[in-house]
């Protein structure tokens, strides 16, 4: 379900604002400051390195706070996909129906362009795999920060489409813990636990662990699993140190192991008359460090470092692929301010590697040293201009320059942001189709060029009293986009597409708060086109609905519980290489969430997902009549594949004032 959906405007903002009495500038500033004080704890963002309040950032950062995260945990405790699908302009796209893998598309751009970070570190890899999204439990998240558009100026080549930064919960002054047990009507189970406590006067720590299980489900009884089976455990300890004069350090280690199985069920076959089991075993280990220390009157020194190794054992029918991904990252920077000017400058170094025991011709090691800088200037009491730039010296794709310019104007209750930037992405063999089908049918990579994009956005927001409204206009042009092309019956190759992929769109929001009730409406429009591989013209980018909308109502009382209802609409989508249809039908999803506080530390919850039972296999089969040239046995996913699902469980909290 998509509770707390963002970005809707049901009537023109200007007309709405005109209905309010006029105020002097001084009165407006005083009322805005008073309203911010009433909101309680300030939201500080980390994704831009400045450590400022979200409303003071010239770069637009959308924040999903802990309260919203808790709602999504009740819906899907096993991964973060539900949390991210709530934010306007983000779309969770299934990339491998056999394994359930999915990535995040930002404002219509390919999912591989989205950089996924944890506390500013690439703990899930410089180019996180689609399954990585489904292997991250949300239990210990404090907030999620989203930057849309080319963010290579901030985070290098993996952030062409945007950045999603998962910020961990910080331990409080008292020991606290939480246990959640969940079960679904599709035979899935989740058990997660979180414990945090101060250890000394300056050191605190937390540990998060989880076990998640799902059995294979063939809902339409065609012999192919619509829901893959998996068995996964995760553990992540963290240490936090707060020193004198603003010095601090954060350290973490994470481990995850998963076995996932899909494809044909035992005794069943594909239309070719053969069994085709698709499976993947994953073992990941990572470690990270974030530290800062004031340096006299100059500013504050910051240091980040991480390492990640991930072993995969894939099975695609009779083909077994054994490989390993690795990422090493280090960054040092110095930040300071003088009067109305603030600045950040630093150096970074990242290594991304891939080694295949089965197909070593696809091995690569990308070494990318870089230098970056960011300068912000307050031009007036309500006006701030920010510029950032980065130069990366990529070992395979040469020197790349990535600038970004942002403007913030805050007159009274209005917030206006404008930004534009350029970024690049270093191609790898792992486009969506290859992640779903493996490397066995892929030709050796030729002389590919780096994918580049120019993005721009204009954002206008208004907040006063119980009303919040926002409209965003965005655009991007992607050049040298990499595409998988068939060259004969069972062989494919990666090529740079001539011409541009053009994306234009808007996000709209209206939210109304009344005591314990919150009503949110959203609408997103995306017009995306790309060169047509079959002609000299253009076509709509597949799997990109032009229209999506949602309406959400939520009642919440911290001492009693919460009740929520949502309706979500997904419009028609263009489909590529689908033997059953060229366009998908539109559909609605309906959901309900309820939680009741039985005791102060004990809560029961139930969540009904997709009550209308919308399922892609009610329209067409998921499995193809014949295997595709790239090796896939399934069509692309354009609607839910699991139908109606009911889940429920219990949440126990202790300590920390509970």
List the helices and strands and how they pair.
Elements: H1 13-18, H2 25-38, E1 62-64, H3 66-75, H4 81-84, E2 90-96, E3 101-106, E4 114-118, E5 141-148, H5 152-155, E6 162-168, E7 176-184, E8 188-198, E9 203-214, E10 229-242, E11 248-263, E12 277-295, E13 299-316, E14 319-338, E15 341-356, E16 364-378, E17 383-394, E18 398-409, E19 414-425, H6 432-437, E20 451-464, E21 467-479, E22 482-488, E23 491-496, E24 500-514, E25 517-531, E26 538-540, E27 547-557, E28 561-570, E29 587-599, E30 602-609, E31 645-655
Parallel strand pairs: 4-6
Antiparallel strand pairs: 1-5, 2-3, 5-6, 7-8, 7-31, 8-9, 9-10, 10-11, 11-12, 12-13, 13-14, 14-15, 15-16, 16-17, 17-18, 18-19, 19-20, 20-21, 21-24, 22-23, 24-25, 25-26, 25-27, 27-28, 28-29, 29-30, 30-31
């Amino acid at each position: 379900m998509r509770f707390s959906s963002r970005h809707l405007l049901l009537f023109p903002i200007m007309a709405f604002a005109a209905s309010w009495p006029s105020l002097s500038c001084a009165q407006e500033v005083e009322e805005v400051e008073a309203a911010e004080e009433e909101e309680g704890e300030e939201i500080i963002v980390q994704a831009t390195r400045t450590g400022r309040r979200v409303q003071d950032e010239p770069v637009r950062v959308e924040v999903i706070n802990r309260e919203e995260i808790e709602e999504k945990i009740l819906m899907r405790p096993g991964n973060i996909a539900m949390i991210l699908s709530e934010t306007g302009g983000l779309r969770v796209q299934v990339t491998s129906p056999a394994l359930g893998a999915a990535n995040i598309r930002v404002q219509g751009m390919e999912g591989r362009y989205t950089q996924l970070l944890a506390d500013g570190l690439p703990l899930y890899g410089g180019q996180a795999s689609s399954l990585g999204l489904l292997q991250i439990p949300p239990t210990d998240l404090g907030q999620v920060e989203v930057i849309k558009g080319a963010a290579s100026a901030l985070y290098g080549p993996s952030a062409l489409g945007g950045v999603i930064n998962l910020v961990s919960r910080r331990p409080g002054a008292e020991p606290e813990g939480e246990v959640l047990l969940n079960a679904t009507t599709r035979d899935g189970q989740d058990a997660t636990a979180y414990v945090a406590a101060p250890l000394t006067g300056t050191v605190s720590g937390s540990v998060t662990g989880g076990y998640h299980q799902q059995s294979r489900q063939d809902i339409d009884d065609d012999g192919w699993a619509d829901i893959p089976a998996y068995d996964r455990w995760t553990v992540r300890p963290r240490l936090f140190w707060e020193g004198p004069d603003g010095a601090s350090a954060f350290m973490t280690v994470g481990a995850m192991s998963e076995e996932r199985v899909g494809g044909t069920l035992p005794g069943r076959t594909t239309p070719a008359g053969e069994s085709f089991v698709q499976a993947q075993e994953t073992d990941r280990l990572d470690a990270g460090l974030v530290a800062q220390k004031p340096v006299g009157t100059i500013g504050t020194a910051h240091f980040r470092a991480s390492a990640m190794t991930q072993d995969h054992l894939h099975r695609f029918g009779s083909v077994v692929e054994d490989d390993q991904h690795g990422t090493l990252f280090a960054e040092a920077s110095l930040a300071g301010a003088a009067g109305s000017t603030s600045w950040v400058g630093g150096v970074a170094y990242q290594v991304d590697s891939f080694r295949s025991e089965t197909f070593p011709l696809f091995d690569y090691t990308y070494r990318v040293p870089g230098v970056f800088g960011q300068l912000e200037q307050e031009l007036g009491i309500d006006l701030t201009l920010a510029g950032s730039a980065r130069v990366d010296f990529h070992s395979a794709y040469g020197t790349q320059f990535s600038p970004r310019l942002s403007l913030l104007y805050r007159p009274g209750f209005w917030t206006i942001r404008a930004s534009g930037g350029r970024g690049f992405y270093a191609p790898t063999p792992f486009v969506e189709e290859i992640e779903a089908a493996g490397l066995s049918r892929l030709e050796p990579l030729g002389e590919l060029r780096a994918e580049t994009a120019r993005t721009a956005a204009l954002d206008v927001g208004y907040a006063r009293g119980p009303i919040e409204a926002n409209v965003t206009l965005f655009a991007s042009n992607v050049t040298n986009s990499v595409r998988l092309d068939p060259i004969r019956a069972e062989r494919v190759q990666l090529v740079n597409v001539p011409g541009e992929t053009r994306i234009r769109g808007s996000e709209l929001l209206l939210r109304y708060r009344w005591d314990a009730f919150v009503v949110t409406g959203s609408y997103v429009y995306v017009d995306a086109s790309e060169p047509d591989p079959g002609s000299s013209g253009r076509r709509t980018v597949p799997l990109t609905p032009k229209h999506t909308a949602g309406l959400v109502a939520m009642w919440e009382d911290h001492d009693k519980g919460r009740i929520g209802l949502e309706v979500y609409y997904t419009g028609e989508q263009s489909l590529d290489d689908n033997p059953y249809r060229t366009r998908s039908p539109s559909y609605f999803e309906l959901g309900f969430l309820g939680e009741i506080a039985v005791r102060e530390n004990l809560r029961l919850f139930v969540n009904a997902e997709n009550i209308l039972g919308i399922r892609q296999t009610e329209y067409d089969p998921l499995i193809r009549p014949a295997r595709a040239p790239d090796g896939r046995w399934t069509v692309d996913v354009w609607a839910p594949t699991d139908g109606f699902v009911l889940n429920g469980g219990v949440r126990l909290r202790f300590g920390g004032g509970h």
